[in-house]
Amino acid sequence: MSTLSTRRTPAPYLFLAPAVLLFGLFLAIPIGYTVYLSLRGTKVSGLGLGKGARQEVFTGLDNYAAAIGDGELWAGWLRVLGYGTLVLVVMLGLALLFALLLDSAHVRLARFSRIAIFLPFAVPGVAATLLWGFLYLPSLSPIRQVLDVDLLGSGTVVLSMANVAVWGGVGFNMLVLYTALRAVPRDYYEAARLDGASEVQIALRIKIPILIPAIILTTVFSIIATVQVFTEPTTLRPLTNTISSTWSPLMKVYRDAFVTGDIYSAAATSIVIAAISLVLSFGFLRVVRDRAFGEG
Amino acid sequence: MRMSRLAVATTAVLAAALAAGCSSGGGSTGTASSAEPAAPGSAGPVNLTYWTWAPNMDKVVAVWNAKNPDIQVTISKQAGGDDAAAKFLTAAKAGNPPDLVQAEYQMLPSFVAADAVADIKAETAAIKGEFSPGIWGLVTLGTEGVYAVPQDSGPMMLYYRQDLFDKYGIEVPKTWDEYAEAARTVREKDPKVFLGTFSSKDPGSFAGLAQQAGAQWWSISGQSWKVAINDPATVKVADYWGNLVKEGVIDDQPYFTPEWNKALNDGTLLTWPSAVWGPGVLSSNAPKGKGKWAIAPLPQWSAGENHSGFWGGSSTAVSEKSPHRAAAVKFATWLNTDPEALGLLVREAAIYPAATKGGTLLGDTPEYFENQPDFWEQATRIAATARGFTFGPNVNVAYSAFKDAFDKAVQDKSSFSAALAAMQEATVADMRKAGFQLAR
């Protein structure tokens, strides 16, 4: 039993235990429970009132069939796709631009600008959306007094939402890219300058290629974040009638689970969403890996 | 040595896990305390938790706690509305609901269908007579059971800007036709001003207007439900508002937004068909309108009629899983029928009691309505004309469908009766999917 043995000690398992325990408690079990719920549903008999009138039953893949067959979910994906493309391009474009500007040799007030650009990221999403929401409302908004556009109209509401996300997200992504830039040995630039390269050429030919891994990283994070868009539309919804309760896929999950009280279809839809966002992020990674690094 | 270090590490991990567990469950605070109550009959007081969103309810409960050392009630303040109902259903499903919960009448059937609230018929037999049959029907759902004690009701009336009605030379409309005419007149006199607005975010308000018109959205016949959300009465109401919105003589911004508050305040919105709890909303959302608003009965569908509907109103229900049912019912009974408690509810929580004798306790005119000294007499007269209908087991689904369908109809200026048909369809589809027995 407890004879001294160098090979069979419990130590490795004990060292592993915390990680396994945490993984099990907070990842495996919840996911398992979600899968379990997604295969179930309630069955009501008669009027559905009184004791035992409602029973939980196994429904197989019915919830998945309903989730995949629901046009609203796919319409939501389309809306998020449009919104996400907009956010990704503008946010990452600005983040890259700011990072390059801050890293360039001629910048002044770099510290202040860096903090000023980063600061919106520290504002919680709900607060940021409310803040912008007030700026969008027709009779309260100073913007509206200059500009005669309905910022919460059916065509413009996506832009208004994207604006909030860009405002909040540029700082973080800028910082990631900027940090990556700072790690680049300065010699490269000097060599380039000696060869007669301008700052713009240095940025395009040296900095951006070196930044590719960081750009990919921020893009993957941003794809995951935009697929999960929930805060902005949910917070703006009470202010306008252009955002439906199923505007984004996650909003549909929320509605099913907590408004209409059907956690079973909400669980199934969640899993469909998780699968799609997995495919999107890994798909993107695969494509860029093949393109950028020529790996198999 | 090694073992002790391991023990420390394990403890630390467990502590971290527990902390994380607590914070991840932080969304539903105040639910755990009811999980470990003193066993009935044992020494020590019974502790009850009560979820409510009525203002100042803590003061009302403090009076009860002082008098009843053996039944102590703790308030957990809720946000109210649909979120509160969802939270209660989730807590009930998770097995840690509060002992008592404020339940809006339209949500009670969902609670009953989810087996989340107790049938307290036996314990409440003595107080049935304290309420009008119409109100009592809202807590029996037309069945043999009794699922809550009625607390307040929300008979609807027309709130209007008296000063601006005079300014624009408009009479208080007696019929909805006159209301539409007045809406056009206002637009002609001042294109910045609207007589009213249609809110696509407030199905409760729309339900009240449909009740006034004589709608019966749900009804029980034998062992099956009949769903008639797009019955002729409701279609009439929907098309009436739809046409006004399309014509542009009524605004289409939702209630309870900063935008709406501003319109109430600065006199660019002249009426609000709302419930008896309106003074609380107006005084906090439109403080500048004090002394300028007045109430009148809702406009009628035909001259000479006298009907109203209900918007809101709630009851006190006892959780099915509460281990202290008797004590909980005792408190709910006191809260909603005892003259002292009713007086406190009127004064502190600013509610319109559901109990018949509550009418005599209403007391002073709300300060906001100092221009209308007979406010409560008016309100009581109007309340007597209000008629309701049976709510079904999936009001949450119907209301959610209302918001989406009417949002879209308002935005596209499309047919409101088509939106109503979508609402009916979504509601029936949900009931059919769940397995409810449906008539026809």
Automatic annotation (TrEMBL), chain A:
Q: Respond yes or no to whether keyword Oxidoreductase is given for this record.
A: no
* Single GO BP term: transmembrane transport
Q: Which Pfam families match?
A: BPD_transp_1
Q: Known PROSITE patterns for this protein? A: ABC_TM1
Looking at the record, the residues that make up the ABC transmembrane type-1 domain are 77-284
| Keyword list, A-Z | Cell membrane, Membrane, Sugar transport, Transmembrane, Transmembrane helix, Transport
Q: Where in the cell is it found?
A: Cell membrane
Cellular component terms (Gene Ontology): plasma membrane
Residue ranges spanning the membrane: these are: 12-36, 80-103, 115-137, 157-181, 210-230, 263-285
Protein's membrane topology = Multi-pass membrane protein
The principal location of this protein is: membrane
- Family stated for the protein in its record: Belongs to the binding-protein-dependent transport system permease family.
Q: Can you say what this protein is called?
A: Multiple sugar transport system permease protein
